[in-house]
């Protein structure tokens, strides 16, 4: 029997680790100078996907975008046949995709797409890493990291290592041993390097072991994996080991509170007010939105996501300085009804910390992603350190229509005194709608206010839910 088809001849040189988050660290989202972060969300059923747009690397941006689009399409197709009812109060399916750079070098860039899907009964984590060659301006799959023979040697070493671990499904390991290079690219679709140069094959939850094992990693030292790597693989390994570029350091935190004069505070218990709110940003269109709001002299409330806050500290500072309210929309935009008390509080506090670091003040309202909340969520966010939960009574469906005229029409027809209007500043079409939205609300005689101003007479307590303010006529 030729040695190449006899994995048993290979000794288990790697080590297996399972559970928890991947051990190859994610680099800060600000690792790329001039990068932007794009986000799309949908509610029926709930999904969110983000990706990084990197100046000078359009093919890498496009590869992330296309991968995320394909995953969303699969997810929506799966739940298209009425299996999902938007009115259900029980656990709803959910898809969550977030990008994480793992290597940034002059030749090679790696971006790992972290994917979580909840199918109604159980959740699964999976990883997919997109590699990019700067000289070739091309997005690449894992196989580009290896010589052709090296990829098969990696396979045999993974098989030998997993074969010596009784927690791994041995029938899956045997199937892996039979895979040729073309199939291997899909099976080993996430390979990364630790700063010490060791190579990590990241296997999805459920792929090779029971779901309770979580993500499975097979790790090889840089010595034992050196012979497998292609020149591009060596560049990727070096990129993961090198420190971040100097210009990636975060913005200094402004120490003082805004110098802006206190805005006049309308009495929303006596005069009809409406609060317009923007979720899921900040993003590439938020700067333009702030310009429009400034021009119109209208305040808004932004429910922001932690990673986007880190990406755009300047926009966060502008929001505060220009009299807007910043609210907490969690870190990873998971349905909080699926999480434990501790996880809910961590989602909340991590984002509050990021806002404080970027803009100098801490949010004191919270909007749960997809509006999903229950007794556990309310309890976790009650008391000291918690926040009132701010929902809405006007749903513009801007995320679905992506049409400025529809957004304006929805606000015009559905708003009433005390309304809280839900929009998303991650869409250009929504930002385009805002002058018309403001005009429509002012034409109805409403004063535009922040959520704080709208709910001032209620003094909302942490853990309480609010969908609108006073209904004065
Ligand atoms: Ni959201």
Write the SSE topology.
Elements: E1 15-18, E2 36-43, E3 46-53, H1 58-78, E4 94-104, E5 108-118, E6 123-133, E7 138-140, H2 148-163, H3 170-177, H4 181-187, E8 191-193, E9 199-203, E10 216-220, H5 222-225, H6 231-241, E11 273-279, H7 286-296, E12 301-304, H8 306-311, H9 313-321, E13 325-328, H10 341-359, H11 375-380, E14 389-390, E15 394-395, H12 398-401, H13 404-414, E16 420-424, H14 428-443, E17 447-449, H15 451-454, E18 465-466
Parallel strand pairs: 3-4, 11-12, 11-16, 11-17, 12-13, 14-18, 15-16
Antiparallel strand pairs: 1-10, 2-3, 4-5, 5-6, 6-7, 8-9, 9-10
The structure holds nickel (II) ion.
Percentage of β-strand residues = 15-25%
Sheet with most strands: 6 strands, mixed
Shape: elongated
Helix/strand/pairing category: alpha/beta
What are the bound molecules? Answer: nickel (II) ion
The strands making up the biggest β-sheet line up spatially as: 2-3-4-5-6-7
